[in-house]
Model the fold of this input.
Amino acid sequence: MKTESKPPQDKSFTTTLLVTQSPEEVFDAINNVRGWWSESIEGITDRLNATFLQYYRDIHIAKMKIVEFTPDKKVTWHVLDSQFSFTKTTTEWKDTKICFEISGKGNKTQLLFTHLGLVPAYECYDVCNGAWNDLINISLRGLITTGKGHPNPKEDEGFNPKQAKRWKLSDT
Done:
């Protein structure tokens, strides 16, 4: 199983997985966001036009909308809003897109992950680069290949529900 990760200096973050599982298994794992990214996900993560929140303590919160959902081929999330507590520009992810493209490669399945708009010029790039590498290349890969990912555990400590009211989901 090959992992290629290359954070280019002139474009968005991308990484590629190559696995023996089927495109359907890869697609299903991607959409089980609580199984590989975070147990602190609120909302629906496996339907076109659904929105969901991802948060980690008071460090990061993001509201995503699923804007592409083609079974066994592609999933794209539009980041409607985002806030970091550790960057000067707290909304660096806002209006970026997170894309999962699935294709056959010989007798294997390739997953191309791209965070469109997450570029080296952003203050959060190094932290996000490391986080995405771990989440995709370790946690999502584990969920795909063994049925067990390594998501961030659900933690309420540090999360401010009053601050999060503006993040309310419309379709849950």
About this structure: The helical segments are 23-31, 33-36, 125-146. The two ends are 37 Å apart (CA to CA).
